[in-house]
Write a structure and sequence with these properties.
- With 83 residues, the chain is α+β, with helices and mostly antiparallel strands.
- It has one domain (2-81): 2-Layer Sandwich (Mth169, Chain: A), CATH 3.30.1280.10.
- The protein contains two helices and three strands.
- The chain has helices spanning 17-28, 52-67; strands spanning 2-10, 41-47, 73-81.
- The chain has a three-stranded antiparallel sheet with strand order 2-1-3, covered by helices on one side.
- The longest helix is centred in the C-terminal third of the chain and has 16 residues, at 52-67.
- The protein is elongated.
- This is Phosphoribosylformylglycinamidine synthase, PurS subunit.
Length: 83
């Protein structure tokens, strides 16, 4: 079995209104050195196979077909064996 960890982020040229709102809130709280805040998603799930290549392929397909909007988001992932 494998544990997958996925990070999804808006592409750099895509406006991130949630990140902008958080950054403005940070400024109001005195965090004046915080810049360029971007908000993304952290996703964990498990893949029930013993084949690393199959797990890697399934994670990639799952991200591309369901978890990520390829028009505005990029993603990265890692998989690790769990017992």
């Amino acid at each position: 079995m494998f544990k997958a960890t996925v990070i999804v982020r808006k592409r750099p040229k895509i406006l991130d209104p949630q990140g902008k709102a958080v950054e403005q809130g940070a400024k109001h709280l005195g965090f004046n050195n915080v810049l360029k805040t971007r908000i993304g998603k952290y996703i964990e799930f498990f893949v029930d196979t013993d084949d690393r290549e199959a797990a890697d392929n399934e994670v990639k397909q799952y991200c591309e077909k369901l978890l990520v909007n390829p028009n505005i988001e990029d993603f990265e992932y890692k998989i690790e064996v769990v017992e």
